[in-house]
Every structure is written in structure tokens, then in C-alpha cells.
Structures
1.
Amino acid sequence: MVPGRPKDHLLSREPRHALLAVPIALIVIVTVVDILAPPSVHLGPFLIAAPAVTASFAGPRATACIGALAVLAQAVVATVRTSLVDLNHTFQLITLILMSAFVTSFAARRERHETELTQLRSVATAAQEVVLKPLPQRIGPLRIASVYLAAESAAQIGGDLYAAARTKQGTRIVIGDVRGKGLEAVGDAALLLGAFRGAAHRQADLSALVTFLEGTVSSDLDDPAAPEAAAEDRGEAFITAAVMDIPDDEPLLHLINCGHPPPLLVRRGQVSPLEMRQPAPPLGLTEFGGSDLLAEAFAFEDGDIALLYTDGVIEARNRDGTFYPLAERVAGKAGKGPDALLAHLRRDLMRHVGGHLGDDAAMVAIERMPRPS
């Protein structure tokens, strides 16, 4: 679901080893030129650039080896030009040894930091993969596709979430976005998804289901056992969510939107947002909104596609700072079904942002299939 993150560090080792040719070539060039230069010209101080450059991309062992090679090259220069005990070359050797040791320690610290970061990414990714289970491609009369795009600019993962549950009358789907990032956001997403999966079958009314979800989120945010500093941060936490109920036998969908971007309805190439007349505040904040969490019905006919998404999609910017025009890019691209639509949007979104998302993004496309005659 967050593909490639833990592997990036491993896959980059081979190109890094190839880069060792650069400091080695630098040592050879400086050594040869220094030997051939006039007696008044001393290029030995430039040798420190070799281990310094190495420390920027390689580990401590490679940096130490390059540093030792630079010291050996300086000793060769000193022997050829004068002698090892020459005062000028002696100070150059001592300085080179000390600076090589310093940049080697820097490389060791950087490597430890990269290892810790990789481990953190692995743990966070594993946790999110457990929380965010893949959606089935077919549920009742619905065909479903989903995609999760992880942000490339940071190690922390976000709290985007989605899930589907089958009931006796139809299918219920939730998509949401937890305020914040990291493992705490994953924990909040797990709390909401667990409550949804457990209650979607028991709550006959969609309003009752969302009320239950609100109570679950609010009770967690008000946990008296939380540390005081954490409680202050939790006071600003909330989850935006759109909860949808799609009956099998009616060409409708029922929606409650809790502060989430409105889903898009695609019908015969035309795109329209499912705007609520009475939108609800985000989960965890409904006590301030005075909303009754009322569901609204929208026509959802055979061949229609409902597109749910998180704000990481519509807030993605290109180099000019322009937001991604999701509705424009959806129009005319849904004729081949939800899988083709999301494949197109994924490619187009990554092209829009130049290959690097600033925030996690999730999309779920749901198509009502024609009922057999």
C-alpha cells in the first residue's frame, strides 16, 4: 500500500558504490598534478575534498578507505617532491588525517540516522498495511477500485483511510483523513476503521452508524488517561470522513459527509459533486457543530461511478502552485470502469506534481453494474 519505501535505501546502495569513482579520480588527478607542479605550488590540501565528498553519500567504511587513500597519496607527493619530514607536508598529512577522521564520524552518524529512518518507515508501513486492508474488486452489484499514494517528501505516513462492509441490504463504504501524520494518525485511523467494520452490520440506519463512529472518536480524544501534553494535542485532533450506504435494489446512494471533500458522481462522461445540503462537521468536532448527522440520497444508476478521495488529491500542487483539477481530469475518463479511471488518475496526478506528492492521497471508485435481466 505504501510501495517501495523500505526498499529505497537498499536499492540505492549500488549507485552509491559507483559514485566512489568520483573521489578516487579526484585523488589521482590532484596527486599527479601536485607532483608535476612547480615547487611553489601545493595542491595537497585539495585531497580533503575526496573523503568529504564520500561522506555525503557513502558509509563510514568507504569514507575511511577514501581518507586513507588520500593520506597515502599525500605521503607519495611528499616523498617525491621533498620528504615525509618536510614541515609543510607534515602539517598537510596531520590535517588530512584529522579531517578524514572527522568526516568519517559524520558518515557514521548519517548512516545510523538513515538506518533508524528506514526502520521507522518499515514499522509505520507495516502498521498501516494491517490497518488499511485492500478492498474487494466486487461487492454485490458494485465494482470497486482503490489506490493509496504515499507522500514521497517525508518518512511519516498519513492517516488516510477507507473500508467497505457488506450488509443484508447493500454495501457501506467509508473514506476519511485523520488530522496529523505518523503512528498516532495510523492509530486514529485504526480506531475509526475498527468501529466502522464492527458496527456497519449492526446499525440499520446510516445516521446511527455515523453517530456511533462520532462517539468512538470523541471518547478516544477525551481519554483521561492520556498524558497532559498529549491531551492538549489531541484536543485539536479530528477526522474528516464521508460515509456512504449503497442499497442493492435501489438506484440510490445515501451519504453523510463529515467535513470531507465531496465525492464526485460520474454519469455518461459528466461529473458533478455530491454536495450536501446539511454537511456535518468532522468526527470529533460534532459537539461544536450542532448537526443531526442526517443522510441525503443521491441517484446512483447502472453505469454510474462514485469517486471518493482525500484532500491529498485535490491539494496536490504542480511547480506553478496550481492545485490538481480532479473534476476536469475525471470527465470523459470513466468509460472503461473504476480500475481504468484510477489508473489514469494515478498517472495524471503524479505527472501533475512532478512525481513527488507532498501528502498521502487515497481514491476509491465505485461503479454500479447493470443488474442481470
2.
Amino acid sequence: MVEILTFRQQGKSLDSSGIPTLMDAFVLVVGTDAFLATFLTRIAALVGGAVEAASQLDEVIPLLEKRLPYILILQASLEGSLEFCYQLKQHNQLAGIYCILIEDRPELAHEQTLSDRHRKLALMAEALEKGADAYLQIAPVRRRSAALAQEEIGLQDRLLAAQIQMGLRKVQNYRQLMRTNDLLSTMALSDPLTELNNRRALEWELPRQIQNARSRSIPLSLVMLDVDFFKSINDTYGHLIGDRVLQLLSARLQHNLRFQDTLFRYGGEEFVVILSHTDVQEAPVVAHRLCRLICEQPFRINPTLSLTITISLGTGTLNATDDIKGVNLLQRADQNLLQAKSDGRNRVVSE
């Protein structure tokens, strides 16, 4: 049975000198009922956000899937805690969680012999080897004067708060780095003018779709298309008008594709559409429909200028001898596109 407790503190954050607070994050504490009874309220008092608790490891993953904590605090003596920490760090989406193991066994905190000392060091080394970010030994305070006991608890809390602070810094930096990487990846795979996937994205996506098509025995086709006489548009009206034509063309294509089709700007005025679940008979049907959609309705560039645009298209369908990267498939679609242009443009040439 898992006990879920939530504490929401409205006081100051861990650090008032600029470290982000935990108001939008939380600490997850996992341990036995006795461990939670000892540490849960102490931890809740140290953070400025939410603290949740679970008493069984098998209930933690569902919690993580709903909401990622910044800090995970595990009872080191809880059965399976070290292996859980290791598995956590192997998971791409969970590896950024800062994992603190708390060793609360009194016999390890108050070692009496050299053997006890060696065992403590071995457990610490194993915890760090398994991926723990920190390993703290915070055992129950021995019976002594109230003043000394309170001082030791204060030092323990100071140490725990420092580790949580460090974890918060590292997780914030890690998540910011991931957001930056995601942004850079999006920028690298996106065409800034049309906001479509670019050629680099096609080079990544096409092999993936080819592998998927072959493993599932489903057809796959391509359409390669080119704007007819695009150079004359730039020469006559200027490159800004040419850019606007590409933007409007991209939008019209995108809005009229099927849900399983993926559109890419291949370069210049050339585009590629991956047609999933589409065989050699169906690909020309899609291509002819796109050809009509472009030529039958003029493009309104601005209030005083409308242009009639046509495109030429070539199709290709995946076969058993094509390479995994799709080079052969692209070449056949490109050859058919060149044939369409040679035959007079504003038409489709298919396999």
C-alpha cells in the first residue's frame, strides 16, 4: 500500500540569493513507514514547494510518469533501493532526477570497529556506483542532553538542505540544457521560411519510415515536386515575393495532405512528401490531386497581386532492392520529376 502525503509550504525557498524555488517542482521521498515518520516532516520544512511520499518502490514509476520530481530521496536500507536508483539513471527521461540516498541504520552511523568502518565505506561506494548523486548518513540521535541532541539534528538538517540545494541547481541546469537542446534540434530540423521540416529532417525521417514499412510489410511512396518557372517569379517580382509564394504554397500543401503524409522543404523551390501506407497505384492519385490544388486557384500574394502557380511532380514507391537510407527511392522520384518538367511541366510522372 502506498501512502501519498503532500505538504505545501508558503515560506521562503531554499535559497533567497537567486536559486530557483521548488514552487513548480517537488521532492519525492520513498521509504518505510518508520523512515517517513522520521524524515518526511523534516524534509517538508526544508523546502519551499511540495513533498510527496511513497512507502513502496513499485508504486514510484507511476508517480514519476504523472509528474517528475526534482529530487528523489530514497531510504538506503529499503530493499531494492540501490537497483531502483540504477534503473532510474538508465532511463533517458528520468536520468535528470537528483537521487539522494539516506542511510539511517544506527549501527552504520556509530561504528565501533574497523570492520564497521569498512562496511560503511563499501555501502557508500556501492550507492555512488549505482548512480546515486549523494549518499548521506543520518542516523537517529543518541540519547544525550537536549541541547546536544538539538544541535546534532540541526547539523543533519543543514547537511540535507545543502544537498537538496545542490540537487535543485543541477536539475535546473540539466532541464535548461535539455530545453536548449530541444530548441536547437527543432531549429536544425526546421526550415525558417516555410516552417516545414527541412532536408536534414528528411534524411533522419525517411530511413525510419523505410524500416517501419519493411518491418510491418506496408507500402511507402514519395512525391518530389518543384515550382515551375520559379526563377522567373524572382526575376520579375523580386525575392520577397518569391519567398511569399513558397510560404503560401507550403501552407496549401500542408493543409491538403492526409494525416499520414509528411511534407519537407527539400531545398529552394523543391519539396518532398513521404506517403505512408501508399502503394504504387495510390501515389499518383495523391500527386495529381496536389497538382490540381496548386494550379486551379491563384495565390493572393498581396492586395494588388495574385499569381497562378503550377508545380511538376514525380513519384516513387519503395521496393525490396532499395537501400535503407532511401537514396534509391529519392533518385527515382527525382528522375520522374525531371521527366515531368521535360514533358511540359504542371504534370505528374509516376512509376
3.
Amino acid sequence: MVPGRLHDLLVSREPRHALLAVPIFLIVLVTVIDVLAPPDVHLGPFLVAAPAVTASFAGPRATGCVGALAVLAQSVVAAVRTNLADLNHTFQLITLILMSAFVTSFAARRERHEREVTRLRTVATAAQEVVLRPLPARIGPLRIASAYLAAESEAQIGGDLYAAARTEQGTRLVIGDVRGKGLEAVGDAALLLGAFRGAAHRQADLPSLVAFLEGTVSSDLDDPAASSVTADDRGEGFITAAVLDVPDDEPILRLINCGHPPPLLLRHGRVVPLETPHPAPPLGLGAFAGNEFSVAAFAFEQGDIALLYTDGVIEARDRDGAFYPLAQRVAGMADKGPGTLLARLRQDLLRHAGGHLGDDAAMVAIERLPRPHRASPGSP
């Protein structure tokens, strides 16, 4: 176990150990009062609360120990007030023993469930690192930041995706959103990401790359053995995506948009949507467009930031049902670079949505940095 995780585990256990003072104090208090109470007053049944309270936060060992301590306390009360053979105290002891055993069993089941949840979260985190790899902070002349917000607090990944790949001439990026949710959406996202990472540096131009991605997605959706869903559902499957090519030596950005929300270009406080004149259909539906992909080029100069995002961002609603006004909010957020932009955007988005998103949201911010100065051959 790494030191960071060990520290977190110890910190999480310390409050639980401190809470054990509550049921122990309850046992002592009930025992003292019961011993001093009049003969017709019996507080022994209240002792069952001690193991019950312990089971709500501690494991079976602590619960069993508190239950045994409660039984011992009840025995002391019986011996002091009458004797252990007294019928009333006998039934109280039997009831306390049975209830202690029951709540100890409950604590054991809860602890097993917590371990299973912890294992699942560990697997989800590992899957996220494999499927949705963190983007590097710097690729060539670009500075990059990324963020992923899962709609479900237990989830780590979903159908939203992004990736970047380095080529000889520049950098290629993709951001996308798989139709649907659950493990099947994760599988489709992994399929597209694997195809992009394998082909981004091999395909000479952007249309060829997108055509390859379209063929990969379509062939998987048409394969009956590739999915457990029905044929009708396979026919309705698709992935919206925006695929970008940012050359190192030209101040431009090339884009093919396959049914995805248009990226935003942030320049000197202005926000410009990168609307393509001839958008393509989502990946998986290329048969309806004849696999023709038109490239749109936009100026992308030093200091410019391109913001890529999925529809989970712009479809986030506030308590009044209003959508998140992304273009309006980001206008004044880009003065400190991509990392600060996404940190501010993340906080503002969650504040707008009341802390809970209705859909997964992915964001990638790309800034073109100034090119390093190259000294002339005769310069010192």
C-alpha cells in the first residue's frame, strides 16, 4: 500500500475509533442508573442500543466487543439487584445476546459491501487510466488541459472521450460522445480511442483519419457478435466527434466535425464558435453521407485557446431549467491559460447545475504557445 493511501486509511479510521466512546459511555450510564434505580425500574433493555449504534459505523469485531460488554454489564446489574437466575434478567440477557449477534452479523455484511465498493472504485480508476489517459500538459507548441466530470458520483468513466496524438507535422486531437450510457458506452469509447491512437500518425490527412474512424465504428456496430444489444439498438448507435489537426508551423487549426458541438475559439476576450460549413454526420452513420468529410480551417494564432467540450456541458441545467451559457461564461476565464480556464469552468458549471450534472461532461482546452526564437547561424 502506498504511503498516501495508508495515510487516507488511517485518517478514515481515527474518527471511527473515537466514536466507540459513545456506545461505551451509554453502557456505563445505563448500568449505573439501573443499579441505583428503584426495584420496579429496569433500564437493561436500553443496553441493546450500544451494539446497534456501533454497527452503524464500526466493523463486526468492534460491534461484537461492544455487545459482549453490554451483556457483561447486564449480568452485573442482575447480580447486584437480584441474581442471574431472576426470570426478568434472564430474558433481558437472552434478548441482548440475540440482538448483539444480529447487529454483529449486520456489521459484517456492511463491511463486506464496503470492501466490494472499494474494489469496484479501484477497478474503475484503473479502467479510466487505461481507456481515458490523461493528456500531457505540453505537446509540441501546444499547452493542453483536460477535465472529466462524471454524472454519477460512483462512476469514473462513461461515454465521453478525448485523446491527443503527435505526428511529424503537428498534433491531432479528438473529443467525442458515445450515444448511450453504461459499460457498452465505455466499450465504444475505448474502441474509438484505440482506433484514433493507432491511426492518427499513419493517416496522411484529416479526411483519411476520420474515414478510418468511421469505418472502425461502423464495422463494430454492424457486427452482431460485438455487442449483446439487439439489432435495432445497433442500428441506432453512433458517436459524435470533433477531430482536429493543429500543425506546428502554421497558425491554423483544421477541423472535421461529426455531429459534435462546435469548439470555441477564445481570442482577446472574444469567443467565436468554430462552425464548419459542411459538418459530417456522427461516426457510425457515415453511410448516409457517402464517407465524404470536409475539412474546415480556422486561424489559430499565438495566445489563442480552443475549447473542446461535450454536450454534457452545454446541457447542464440550473434549478429553473436554464441551460449553461458556455460561450458567455468562458469569455473572461482564459487570461491564465488552459489549466486555470478549466478549473474556473468546472467550478462555475457545477455551481450552475447545483453540484450534480445530468450527463457526463468532458472538456479540453488547447493554447498555442509562442514559437521559440531560433538564433541565426551567425549569431553568438
